[in-house]
Amino acid sequence: MPFETRASLPGPPCPPTRRCRLHPQCRRRFTPSSPRQMPVRALGPDPKGGCPMSEAITLLVRAQMLIDGLGGPPLSPGAVAVAGQRIVYAGPAAGAPVAPPEARVLDYPQGCLLPGLIDMHVHPTYYWEEPDSATYTYEPENALVYTPVMIALVAAQRLREALWAGITTVRDTGSVDQIMFDVKRAIERGRIPGPRVYVSGRLIVPTGGHVHYLPGLANEADGPYGFRRAVREEVRAGADFIKLANNGADLTQEELNAAVDEAHRLGKKVTCHTSKPPSQRMAIEAGVDTFEHGTPSPEEIEQAVARGITWVPTLNIGEEYLKWCDRRRFDPDPEVARRAQKEYEETLEYREKKHASVAYALRAGLKLAAGTDSWLGGVRFAAMADEVRWLVEYGASPMQAIQAATLWPAQAMGWDEIGCLQAGKLADLIVVDGDPLREIAALDRVQLVVREGKVIRS
Ligand SMILES: [Zn+2]
């Protein structure tokens, strides 16, 4: 079978009017049709196999290597063919359809094709830690005033940066008022470049809970009915999913259960900020879909595996925060230095526990999802290459780390159209320079970014 491929070849059966020009030996014939005439939806697996409609192909990318995100061995060389917004072929380069002359063909003889990356934890509107904000500048009279317009512009700039780095989808896990809904709409309408954005709106916290002191970031609620109402408020505003925050146990199990139930009743996934015990246990018990941060115990990890819950450990921010505390330990202000020293020691301890949790999670088969928790000033935004590198340093195999940044987040959130390179999925793909299975840092050398079939960077 010279044209056998891992992916089933797409395209309806070919009407017999013209010779196939995809494969030199192919004897089948078909009627030519322009991409406009043939809707992308019509593309599907050809029950007879072979002979895809090459006329529909708008982009063909070939690379030395292809990792499709599904966890199997890489293909070498590999190719992805795109028709409009969707992938119509992903497999060995030898079996790829021939693109029509008007299609764009890109070759990366040293590159590796991968699904577009998914950052499961970002805060594009979080501005309080920016060096020029009133919170941290030593010259408050010169601090930038972060009006809603300025916050939206900062978010737009950060998201553009993320897309450029190969992140084609982000999950915004808590944002100021309703700003991110507008930023998302602007991206969807093509007014600004950016990744696909899933927005939670404000964090839902108990009165006086996590980040309640940051204006516009928290939706404070009390009691099971209060939490149900808060969930409805965020859904009314346009939330794609719900973000709860539990610091230790500052909300009750009853409140948590009610919020999770209400979100699921409304068809929304739920995640929970779980920084310290017993918040992980409480979140897992309530049946969240994912939980963020923390150092889950072996029992909690096993329970999460049994319930199909995914953990977003957010490693990079911990490492960056440690560096940040380290620098501030030597601040000329003794009070700042004293507090930084305390934070530094606590963060070191937290890191040790985190190492143990990640190691156990990998052994137990807990699905991990990469999230950068980008908010800290001075750190590059949505540093997925760093997060994936840390996952490997904490014990994940390069393939597991790549899946944590592609397929596993998509599965956790029910985003069925993204996360892997497969015929029928949306064409979100990247090429990096080198072999990330040998050198995970190759993810930092992005050469091509395609979002929904559109070449963003090449
Ligand atoms: Zn966060």
Features:
31% helix; seven-stranded mixed beta sheet; TIM Barrel; Urease, subunit C, domain 1; single chain; disordered N terminus; 20% strand
Could you give the topology of this structure?
Layout lengths: L58 E8 L11 E6 L2 E7 L11 E12 L1 E6 L25 H17 L2 E6 L6 H10 L7 E4 L3 E4 L11 E4 L1 H15 L3 E6 L6 H13 L3 E6 L4 H8 L3 E3 L5 H9 L3 E3 L2 H14 L5 H31 L19 H10 L4 H7 L2 H7 L15 E5 L12 E6 L2 E4 L1
Bound molecules: zinc ion (ZN).
Please identify which CATH superfamily of the largest domain we are dealing with. Metal-dependent hydrolases
The CATH C-level class name of the largest domain: Alpha Beta
Bound molecule kinds, no repeats:
zinc ion
Question: How are helices and strands ordered from N to C?
Answer: EEEEEHEHEEEHEHEHEHEHHHHHEEE
Radius of gyration: 24 Å
The class by helix and strand makeup works out as alpha/beta
Total helices: the number is 11
